[in-house]
């Protein structure tokens, strides 16, 4: 870290060491350089060792990593029995949350992680160690340690995407369910493909389909919204004074007791007529509807 600060001061004619540290911290926050010993992306004016990030992971590639990529990365870390790759508490929590979110496709994610581990094991030990640290630094930028600023939300990346309108969300590992897994660092950047006549034809077809889509006039949308508001206005205690009292502005919970009672009021029954959803949302309405179905020998439709 001290060498980087001295380099800035010498080559950029910076007199104040604080300015050099601030400039280095801005660069480190974007992940271009990162500390080897910890995962807080700042520049320290001491003996901390830093490593340059691989160009593949630079922010200029307009990364928008998916949660599936993060799940593959965390899953891969759990397969490697190394102390330096052990999951931190927040990463273990993220992994558990992602496992619940992607329960249906977790087998696919696990298979991709296994394939990545097999590829990594074929590499030289030193190279593998460097690649592991670079990959982890990438995720420190996009899924930072709690308490650290997420620099990926800065406007500079939006500006970059405006210059590259063809750039869209892409997988860090180049993974789709049909594709073969490959190492993230050694994926070659694809050259920009020239737009062909077929591309223009597809675009024209797409735009024609959008034009032919059925669209509602704004006046119709406004009428529907007004009708909905008028229908429910008497049930909104913010607009219509509730009886016997408004629990939102007083400590009287009598209204909630009335709503939970098994003897529905006339206003409550009236609301059932709005839609079937209103009947089923109300426990008493659902019970009454179940009784009706039992009389018609079709109560299994509600169970």
UniProtKB/TrEMBL annotation:
Cross-referenced SUPFAM superfamilies: Regulator of G-protein signaling, RGS, Transducin (heterotrimeric G protein), gamma chain, Winged helix' DNA-binding domain
Residue ranges annotated for the RGS domain, each copy included: 275-303
PROSITE patterns documented for this protein: DEP, RGS
Keywords of this entry: Signal transduction inhibitor
Cellular component, GO, one term: cytoplasm
Domain (DEP): residue spans on this chain: 1-54
Region: Disordered, residue numbers: 174-194
Statement: the UniProt record of this protein carries the keyword Acetylation: no
UniProt key word Nuclease: no
GO BP terms, alphabetized: G protein-coupled receptor signaling pathway; intracellular signal transduction; negative regulation of signal transduction; regulation of G protein-coupled receptor signaling pathway
Superkingdom of origin organism: Eukaryota
InterPro entries named among the record's database cross-references: DEP_dom, G-protein_gamma-like_dom, GGL_sf, RGS, RGS6/7/9/11, RGS6/7/9/11_DHEX_sf, RGS_DHEX, RGS_sf
Biased composition (Low complexity): 179-192
Gene3D superfamilies recorded: 1.10.1240.60, Regulator of G-protein Signalling 4, domain 2, Transducin (heterotrimeric G protein), gamma chain, Winged helix-like DNA-binding domain superfamily/Winged helix DNA-binding domain
Cited PANTHER family: LP21163P, REGULATOR OF G-PROTEIN SIGNALING 6
Protein name: Regulator of G-protein signaling 6
Species name: Phaethon lepturus
